[in-house]
Amino acid sequence: MRVLVAEDHPRVADALARGLRRDGFAVDLAPDGDQALFKARVHPYDVVVLDRDLPRLHGDDVCRTLNAEQPATKILMLTAAAALEDLVDGLALGADDYVTKPFRYAELRARIDALGRRTGDVRPTVLRRGDLELDPARHVARRAGRDLDLSPKEFGVLQVLLAAEGATVTAEQLLERVWDENVDPFTNSVRMVLVTLRRKLGEPALIETVRGVGYRL
């Protein structure tokens, strides 16, 4: 899942990004509303974690614009204002969820997971194909009952392939969904991750290379 964290306090933004990346999310950061809106128009985010009191362009304006331009993108509004009227106002602007500061990381991550499951087509909480299953919320993957020790990128690639339900996924789509904005589009990162992922999945092989197109389960 790809997430944009729009937060002007560097310590909060960096801590949240570290936690989400550790849990397998692709995370980009925006320190103000202008950059948040620009990045959201360039990259396909599943969830935008949006601080309401952003500089340059207020979070309310970012929320209104994204809600109008990208209704499928889920917005989790993050704010220090805890009054009921603030929550009502935030949801009225088009936010899909609302969390007040200070927050607990485990709760925020669970809310991001829940919003991510609501993007696009409705999908089951646990993804399964044959003897392979993946639980994004618990960050657990198993094959034939055996736990798989996957890196965050391996977990993310496997999640995208499982969600595709047998359809072919291009390398460019994997870069968009699993890597952040700093990735080199000409890199061989996808191929390298697939090499180690295939080895960890074991036999019989599950991931097929569709020559000239991409990959599928």
Automatic annotation (TrEMBL):
The modification 4-aspartylphosphate is found at residue 51. Gene3D superfamilies: 3.40.50.2300, Winged helix-like DNA-binding domain superfamily/Winged helix DNA-binding domain. Residues 124-217 form the OmpR/PhoB-type domain. The keyword DNA-binding applies. This is Response regulator transcription factor. It holds the Pfam family Response_reg. Keywords: DNA-binding, Phosphoprotein.
